[in-house]
Amino acid sequence: GQNIDQPTEMTATEGAIVQINCTYQTSGFNGLFWYQQHAGEAPTFLSYNVLDGLEEKGRFSSFLSRSKGYSYLLLKELQMKDSASYLCAVRGTSGGSYIPTFGRGTSLIVHP
Amino acid sequence: KAGVTQTPRYLIKTRGQQVTLSCSPISGHRSVSWYQQTPGQGLQFLFEYFSETQRNKGNFPGRFSGRQFSNSRSEMNVSTLELGDSALYLCASRGIDNEQFFGPGTRLTVL
C-alpha cells in the first residue's frame, strides 16, 4: 500500500521561511506533488518532483529524496495569503494503475 | 483560457438514487481525473480518463463509474447512493506535463 505522513499544523510569521515535510511509502514511485488548498476552494498545483533534488518556482521550492522517501516544500517570504492547507501526494502503482495518494494536509497559519 | 468547469455545483440526493456529475476540462487537455474529498478520508483518487479511455482507477466500488467523450468532457456517475457518498467531488484536467488544474467541485449531499 501507500502511506503519506505530513504534520497536521504549522504556524509561522509573515516574512519568514517555513519548511513542510512529507514522508512516504509507496510501490512503483512515479512522482510527488504538492498542492495548496485554501478553505472552501479547490486545490492548486504547486510542484512536481520525479527525480532527486530541488525544484524552485518563485517563493516556493520542493525537494525530493527517493531513497529516503522524503520531500519538503519550502515557502519563503511568507505572506498572509499563504495561510492554507498544503497537500503532499505521491503517485505509485496499485492493481496495474498509477494512483496518486494524498496526505491529510498540513494547515499552515501565517500570523503578522 | 477558460478553466475547468464542473456542473452542477451543488446537489442533494436521497439514499438509493443515482447521480451524474459533469466536467469540462481546459481546452486542449485530454486527461481528466476525478477525486472525492471528505473531512474523514481527505482527498482520494477515483479514476483518470485519457482520450475516452479509463487509464487509471482508484480503490472505489463499482458504483462509481465514469466516461469521457470525444471532446474530452467527462462525466462521473454514482449509483445506489449511500450516506457516505456525501462529499466534494473534484475534477482535474492535465495537459502534456504533470500540472493538474482543478475545477471548483460539486458538493454532493446524500440524505
Helical coverage of chain A, percent range: under 10%
Classify the beta-strand content of chain A into a percent band.
Answer: over 45%
General form of chain B:
globular
Number of strands of chain A: 11
Q: Nearest-angstrom radius of gyration of chain A?
A: 14 Å
Q: What is the ordering of alpha helices and beta strands of chain A?
A: EEEEEEEEEEE
Largest interface: A-B, 22 and 19 residues
Instruction: Characterize the quaternary organization of these chains.
Output: heterodimer
Q: Helical segment tally of chain A?
A: 0
Kindly estimate the percentage of residues of chain B that lie in beta strands according to DSSP.
Answer: over 45%
Compute the separation of the termini of chain A in Å: 41 Å
Total strand count of chain B, please? 11
Major sheet size, sense and barrel closure of chain A:
6 strands, mixed
The share of residues in helices of chain B is under 10%
Mean pLDDT across the residues of chain B is 95
Please write the string of helix (H) and strand (E) elements of chain B: EEEEEEEEEEE
Structure characterization notes:
The complex is a heterodimer of chains A (112) and B (111). Chain A has 112 residues and is mostly beta strands. Chain A is built from no helices and eleven strands. In chain A, the strands form two sheets. In chain A, strands 2, 4, 5, 9, 10 and 11 form a six-stranded mixed β-sheet that branches. The mean pLDDT of chain A is 95. Chain B is globular, with a radius of gyration of 13 Å. The model of chain B has no long low-confidence stretch (mean pLDDT 95). Chain B has no helices and eleven strands. In chain B, strands 2, 4, 5, 6, 9, 10 and 11 form a seven-stranded mixed β-sheet that branches. Chain B has a four-stranded antiparallel β-sheet with strand order 1-3-8-7, with no helix packed on it. By secondary structure, chain B is an all-beta fold. The chains are: A mainly beta (112), B mainly beta (111). Chain A binds chain B through residues 31, 33, 41-45, 48, 50, 87, 89, 94-95, 97-105, and chain B through 42-45, 55-59, 90, 97-105.
